[in-house]
Design brief:
This protein is an alpha/beta fold. It contains 15 helices and twelve strands. It folds into two domains: 142 residues, Nitrogenase molybdenum iron protein domain (Rossmann fold, 3-Layer(aba) Sandwich); 155 residues, Nitrogenase molybdenum iron protein domain (Rossmann fold, 3-Layer(aba) Sandwich), CATH 3.40.50.1980. The strands form four sheets. The protein has a four-stranded parallel β-sheet with strand order 4-3-5-6, with helices on both faces. A four-stranded parallel β-sheet has the order 9-7-11-12. Strands 1-2 form a two-stranded antiparallel sheet. α2 links the parallel β3 and β4. α7 runs antiparallel to α8, α8 packs parallel to α13 and α13 packs antiparallel against α14. The radius of gyration is 23 Å and the shape is globular.
């Protein structure tokens, strides 16, 4: 009898420990300043925040997604072949537009990620319904690192280890760029124009692209322009007269669009042929996603090909293998390094 009593006691204590573990919560403050208690473990996630969706994959939590909004595309036909291979469930997960409370609840989410600049009201609704909703405001590299830290804290040890590794990788890349450019004074840095889905749609000084250019050692010629994707004219382009033009990795604009246009022939970047379209594997690398680290390496390599001691191929292969468990194909490597 004593033996069975001991067995029962062990079982009771064990079940109690499991129950306590399941009821534990991690308290954080999200990027909008809201205090949240997030029950552990987090197993079912809805990400209404497109960049945050890719952060989940990079932190090894993509398999916990129940619904996802993806930065860079809204329909299944717009997704890259690589992303289809990474996420076989993409057609079921993919959503766009305004989130629907009932649909999100039906997916059984125990954590929701939202854009704090757009979905504050929705976040309040979901928090009131008892579903912790983390608001992200990751519009700078520093804020991206902070968002990864927050997610790492609530998604478990492996996710936290990946967030820590990403911070270390980012610091290493910045250090390599700074070391390579230590002998170039600021006025002598390469002057860069970043254009979007139209040759005359330019990234401004308020955007992530400007910060990427500066981190890569360049000078953004539109640093004093405010707003979001401002329309310019040819007179503006000629006044800025950039040394390099970088084209966003979405839309129809290609280097030939500018290089073969008679109206652009007086621009320094066109005269020297230094017009490049940023490559893309999963997410657009010019947005606040983990892949923007590779966007930084690529930009530095474009601006200063003989100065930066970073091997783009090696960096990309290691990045995708660790953060996405994805092996780049020969075609994808060629795409990344093509000019």
């Amino acid at each position: 009898m004593k033996k069975w009593a001991l067995v029962i006691l062990v079982l009771v204590v064990g079940f109690a420990a499991i129950a306590v573990a399941e009821e534990t919560a991690i308290e954080i403050v999200d990027q909008a300043g809201n205090a949240l208690a997030i029950r552990q473990p987090v197993e079912h996630i809805v990400s209404v925040y497109g960049p945050g969706t890719f952060s989940l994959y990079a932190l090894g939590a993509g398999d916990r997604l129940e619904m996802g909004w993806y930065v860079g595309f809204k329909t299944i036909s717009q997704a890259s072949d690589a992303l289809h291979r990474l996420e076989p469930r993409l057609e079921d997960l993919l959503h766009s537009g305004d989130p629907n409370v009932e649909e999100v609840i039906a997916r059984g989410a125990d954590l929701i990620l939202v854009d704090g600049s757009r979905h504050g009201t929705f976040a309040d609704q979901m928090n009131a319904l008892g579903v912790p909703t983390l608001q992200c405001l990751a519009e700078t590299p520093e804020a991206l690192l902070e968002s990864l830290d927050l997610l790492g804290a609530v998604l478990g040890e492996d996710a936290q280890a990946r967030a820590d590794a990403f911070k270390a990788d980012y610091a290493r890349v910045l250090s390599a760029i700074a070391m390579g450019l230590s002998d170039i004074q600021t006025p002598d840095r390469v002057r860069v124009l970043f254009v979007g889905t139209d040759p005359l749609s330019v990234a401004t000084g308020d955007m992530y692209q400007r910060l990427m250019i500066e981190a890569a050692g360049g000078l953004c010629v539109t640093q004093d322009v405010s707003g979001y994707w401002k329309s310019a004219n040819l007179e503006d382009i000629l006044t800025w007269n950039p040394d390099v033009i970088v084209i966003a990795p979405y839309g129809a604009v290609q280097p030939a669009t500018l290089l073969e246009n008679p109206d652009w022939q007086a621009v320094a970047a066109v005269q020297t042929g230094r017009v490049y379209r940023m490559p893309r594997v999963f997410a657009p690398m010019d947005t606040p996603v983990p892949e923007s680290l590779l966007g930084l390496v690529w930009t530095a390599d474009v601006l200063y090909p003989e100065k930066i001691g970073l091997d783009l191929c090696a960096e990309a292969a290691a990045f995708y293998a660790y953060y996405y468990s994805y092996a780049l194909s020969d075609e994808e490597v060629a795409h990344l390094i093509s000019r």
